[in-house]
Amino acid sequence: MIGGLIRSLSSSQRHKILTIYQANKFHTSGPRRKLPLILFTLIKPLAKITSYVLGRGTRKAWKKLPTTQQRTYLEMLNANRGAFMCTGAFSLGGLYYLYESHKQTCPITGRQKFVALTPDQARRIGEANFTEIVNDAQGIIVPETDPVYTKIAKVANGILHANSDLRQIYDKTWTLTVIDAPVMNAFVLPSGNIFVFTGLLENCSNMDQVAAVLSHEIAHVVLGHVEEKLTRTSFLQMLLLVPMSLLWVLIPYDGIGFVTTWFFDSVADIMLELPFSRLMEVEADEVGLVLAAKACFDIREAPKFWGRMAQEEEPLSEELEFLSTHPASQNRQDNLQEKMASALQIRQDCGCPPLDYPAPRSSHSE
What we know:
Layout: H1 37-64, H2 67-79, H3 81-101, E1 103-105, E2 112-114, H4 119-136, H5 147-162, H6 167-170, E3 175-179, E4 186-188, E5 193-197, H7 198-202, H8 207-222, H9 225-250, H10 254-294, H11 301-312, H12 329-349
Parallel strand pairs: 3-5
Antiparallel strand pairs: 1-2, 4-5
């Protein structure tokens, strides 16, 4: 069993709260070569700067060349087009190898994913963010003796204990920080640091709904979504580096270049980044529902929570979902309701006490 969870974050044991299991570790793929951490944290701005500098610099230098010299370079390019094509093909082959060598299958969902960031690198990113967030929140961190902290810790403990069979749960040092702020939010860093704002409790009807939110956030960590998202973003930036550089070469004016780049980035976000972000949210919803079911919470409260969130969303939120990083609340509610029967069966198979009261209604109007 995992030992006692989460004590005061003001103590010297802030980073050593849970027992870390060393046994029964497994890998979903063979050993992978570790890429530099800076590649994932800085590649997006560096790619934009590099494409701008290379493309714009090439365009400026080309304009300064005499016409005869421009013609000479064009002839040389045409004469060596085979070599350039081979270089391009070799580069694409290298990217393909990078992709294939870092593919793995998620042991929980069975989905194949591309992950070049190692768990240790993700943990280091999480630890750096943890220190920064705790420093920023000094003075509004709820102490462990506070009843609010105790209630949230009990929920977090329940989820972690019930799912301690998962390597992604037992191989982390979990901590809890409760921040006294009217923000309806909670999140979990890849290093296992749980953050909950007291505003979340004010917007949840009961602790089962709090458990639904925490299970969703813990599911993101269990599924390695941070590692996957950073890898995907870095890989896309590498793919877009050459096209974006050529864009700056071909566009004659900087003003038009900036507008075109912004448009290109917006289209890439809408077509590539945002759908993937919504996919991860749906995946965390579904896996989080199972985590909460194993912990014997009333998981029927999960779609009820999102039903209330749907009432508070702006009109046309469902129609404009393609512009959001998260699915519309109504769609999340409907999806969870579809998964409810199987999740309730898992809850029963875990020997949880039966639910002896009517299931909460799951609709826009209550």
